[in-house]
């Protein structure tokens, strides 16, 4: 069963929304029997199966990922995938009638080409997506969709330092072309082998990867003695045989070092600061206990360096800024790196911290019967500031510090009290509570404010049963109540009988939305439609929100 994503609506908003219009209104203190029958369609599904063989057709290949993609622009059915068994067999189930392309992704160690079922060769294989043959399902499953995967070609070579002798181990090497890609690392003597490639032209690239190696990043290039360039590349042609001898001499990377320290009279090292380069090569390093950083593997060029550290403002190195630091990225200095560089000590500014200057709003939150409510979130919001706090075990809160201004308090219920309403402080109510954003009372703050006690009432409920065509219960289906005045959103799931109960609702009128799903079995696809509650029609169902019936609770 697959459900749609949650609808993104705020549970509490400090400004009210527009009233829904043009709808009928069903009134009740708490609403029951808000039942809906969702339309459902059951479709027969089919499968595509076959065997993936090696190039000779003598043995099946295990662990090949086989993907069936719909050929329609928007899709003619639900695509699927499967992995081959030890014998090379695959079966992709749950497909609707329509045309599909089959693609095959063998494991790297098999050294077989990646491609599609198509063409007229005995192997029914092609690397060209335009030559993929449509596998069309009408009213029966497709079988014997076999394929032979050709052997892949290899590109191999050796990476050394510029002396041509000293091997580089663990260097990341990759080949990328229009019909293939592979990546590996050089071994202990600098050798590498890229495999599974289809005929075509490839660029061979070299980098440090995620290691602590210190070599420049670039590509195989025949235009110099090192057969390496940081900016240019030569393509390697793979036609009917493996290609060897793609050797490169990789220059040592350039290093930028420095320190990050505090601005104290006697500067203190900042441990764990993150310093990164922005230029021809992206690289980064963290400062150690002495505040030192060392960025390795840089290519020659012009760089800027950013600095991030907990408790400090984000910024960049600046050769002219105070303390060699700036918080404005447009003021960052360009550093020319043609050899190893040591930067002056960078001293970032501390992060802006809310000081104790300001005022507090305090009070107590209880039920309407006077029972303490702990862990209730209380938010104070105004154009001049914002703060949040939670009630303690006795229901007391103190939110702040906030600058002077007029604040509205909103309350978010704890998971411990799902039956209580979310809402606001409202002085017009005897309980000083309102669930309506537009009725929230502004609290002037120019000094500490006390005694803002609030009693939260139990919420109202809306319940019923959700069924699907034929009388089957809609099990574990999501039902949502959306309040007309401010889009407050509450949801629940149906039980094994299709029953649901939306709780903790405030006074108002709500649209009831039900989210459908689809479920597949070996040979069936059940599609259940989304929809809304609409009274007075068959199944109480509407496919559109505009014609839904608003359910009032008060």
SSE diagram, text form:
Layout lengths: L1 E2 L21 E4 L7 E3 L1 E5 L1 E8 L11 E6 L9 E4 L5 E7 L2 E8 L9 E3 L7 E2 L8 E3 L9 E2 L4 E8 L11 E6 L2 E6 L5 E7 L2 E8 L10 E3 L7 E2 L6 E3 L9 E2 L4 E6 L14 E5 L5 E3 L5 E7 L2 E8 L6 E3 L7 E2 L8 E3 L3 E2 L16 E9 L9 E6 L2 E6 L5 E7 L2 E8 L10 E3 L7 E2 L8 E3 L8 E3 L3 E9 L9 E6 L5 E5 L5 E7 L2 E7 L2 E4 L3 E5 L2 E3 L7 E2 L7 E4 L1
Parallel strand pairs: 2-50, 3-41, 5-13, 14-22, 23-31, 32-40
Antiparallel strand pairs: 1-46, 4-47, 5-8, 6-7, 6-9, 9-10, 9-12, 10-11, 14-17, 15-16, 15-18, 18-19, 18-21, 19-20, 23-26, 24-25, 24-27, 27-28, 27-30, 28-29, 32-35, 33-34, 33-36, 36-37, 36-39, 37-38, 41-44, 42-43, 42-45, 45-48, 45-50, 46-47, 48-49
Notable features of this structure?
single chain; 554 residues; mainly beta; Immunoglobulin-like; 6-stranded antiparallel sheet
Briefly, what is this?
The chain contains no helices and 50 strands. With 554 residues, the chain is an all-beta fold.
What this model shows, in words?
The protein is mainly beta. The chain has five domains: 2-41 and 460-553, Immunoglobulin-like (Sandwich); 55-148, no CATH class; 162-249, Immunoglobulin-like (Sandwich), CATH 2.60.40; 261-342, Immunoglobulin-like, CATH 2.60.40; 359-456, Immunoglobulin-like (Sandwich), CATH 2.60.40.10. Helix content is 0%, strand content 43%. The chain contains no helices and 50 strands. Strands 2, 42, 43, 45, 48, 49 and 50 form a seven-stranded mixed sheet that branches. Strands 6, 7, 9, 10, 11 and 12 form a six-stranded antiparallel sheet that branches. Strands 15, 16, 18, 19, 20 and 21 form a six-stranded antiparallel sheet that branches. The chain is flat. 37% of the residues are buried.
